[in-house]
Design brief:
- The complex is a heterodimer of chains A (105) and B (269).
- Chain A is an alpha+beta fold.
- Chain A is 21% helix and 30% strand.
- Chain A has one domain (2-102).
- Chain A has helices at 5-13, 56-68; strands spanning 18-27, 37-41, 46-48, 74-79, 95-102.
- A five-stranded antiparallel sheet of chain A has the order 3-2-1-5-4.
- The longest helix of chain A has 13 residues, at 56-68.
- Chain B has 269 residues and is of the alpha/beta class.
- In chain B, 36% of the residues lie in helices and 19% in strands.
- Chain B is elongated.
- The relative contact order of chain B is 0.10.
- Classes of the chains: A alpha+beta (105), B alpha/beta (269).
- The interface between A and B is medium-sized, with 22 and 22 residues.
Chain lengths: 105, 269
């Protein structure tokens, strides 16, 4: 979170709506530990990361959808065993669990 | 605004922990807690007063241990299995924000600038200390968070109690007047890493001087990583800085890395 505070502050001063995605758990091998964070603003601009670049694209899509809906946040899972909508996985074979929510707090 | 307070506490290096409901009633609600609740009051709610109280108490324990984790409660903070029967589960992401680890570098030499740079990349709060004010200047070490002109003993007396397993003391002086008190001071702390620069010959002579001041316990001497760094054949200050930081990482996570302190033969080939 520390490394994305600057970008978030800038977006907030521009009154952009923002979603924050955080790694909450990792199964097996994963590039980033719990707490790794990225933020997406309503224009699709991104700061930070939650993996080695493997799932960030899918996180943007999910984050924008959360901003457009009235969602207060949802759990999202990416990985090889993923049987949900996204066919995106980590090249290292692990599973990453994210919580994505609007930054309205 | 909870975010604004969180950002302020992170930037001010104040320990704090953010709780977020990730599943169950009130998903998305947050609670921000700091140990010093007089100065940094608890903000937000997870939707239930009793849940706030129980989860905040647990979160402060997680913060103390530097852990980030997911914890499960009942809607009113229930934790015992019989109380949880028939209630929805509230899953809470407990994210600890600890102040950055510290690196104190003794000796204002060329290796110091390179080490301070690499340590900053790794997120350390870097303090450079040397008794010679001509050398210990902010202009020479702009990347350091602090540059202080003094002897090792007062610095370690003051900051020693705060040093722990995540922190590092690197002694880069080759001057016995400086490195003996620095080693003595560092050994009196719980700091996780003590690296001491010098050739194998310098190290042998230093052991004699340490013995003169009563430092002979094998457990103490085993804490000294000397010669400092990994046996990767580094030559330049920058390469040496990488080898020192790699050794610090390896020791912190308990990996068996090829430390120069545990190998023999020439440091440079």
């Amino acid at each position: 979170m520390r490394e994305i505070l600057g970008d978030i502050d800038r977006w907030r001063s521009q009154n952009k709506r923002i979603a924050v995605a955080r790694v909450i758990d990792i199964e097996g091998s994963g590039p980033r530990d719990p707490g790794a964070a990225m933020a997406v603003n309503e224009d699709g601009e991104v700061c930070g990361s939650v993996s080695g670049g493997c799932v960030e694209g899918a996180v943007v899509t999910e984050a924008l959808e959360i901003l457009q809906s009235n969602s207060q946040g949802r759990l999202v899972k990416f990985g090889y065993s993923d049987d949900e909508a996204f066919a995106v996985g980590l090249t290292c074979g692990g599973v990453v669990h994210l919580f994505i929510q609007p930054l309205n707090w | 605004m909870i975010y604004a307070a969180l950002a302020e506490r992170i930037r001010g290096n104040k320990p704090t922990v953010l709780l977020t409901v990730i599943d169950g009633p009130n998903t998305g609600s947050t609670l921000l807690v700091s140990p010093d609740q007089k100065k940094f009051p608890t903000l937000g709610t997870l939707g239930d007063e009793e849940l706030d109280r129980v989860a905040a108490r647990d979160a402060l324990g997680e913060l103390e241990a530097g852990r980030t984790s997911v914890r499960n409660y009942g809607p009113s903070g229930q934790v015992t299995p019989e109380d949880l029967v028939g209630t929805p589960t509230v899953r809470i992401f407990v994210e600890s924000f600890s102040p950055p680890p510290q690196m104190i570098i003794f000796g204002a030499v060329d290796f110091t600038a390179a080490l301070a740079r690499v340590a900053k990349v790794l997120g350390y709060y870097v303090t450079v200390c040397d008794a010679r004010e001509v050398f210990a200047t902010k202009r020479r070490f702009p990347m350091a968070d602090e540059v202080i002109v003094t002897w090792p003993t007062p610095v370690l007396a003051e900051r020693g109690p705060d040093l722990g397993a995540r922190d590092a003391v690197c002694i880069l002086t080759h001057d016995p007047k400086f490195d003996v008190p620095a080693i003595q001071g560092a050994l009196a702390t719980a700091v996780g890493y003590i690296g001491v620069m010098g050739s194998r010959k310098t190290h042998a002579k230093r052991l004699e001087r340490l013995a003169e001041v009563g430092i002979t316990k094998p457990a103490d001497l085993a804490r000294l990583m000397s010669p400092i760094g990994l046996d990767i054949g580094s030559r330049t200050p920058e390469e040496t800085a990488i080898s020192i930081c790699a050794e610090i990482i390896g020791k912190r996570v308990g990996r068996n890395v090829p430390s120069l302190a545990n190998t023999s033969g020439p440091i440079h080939r």
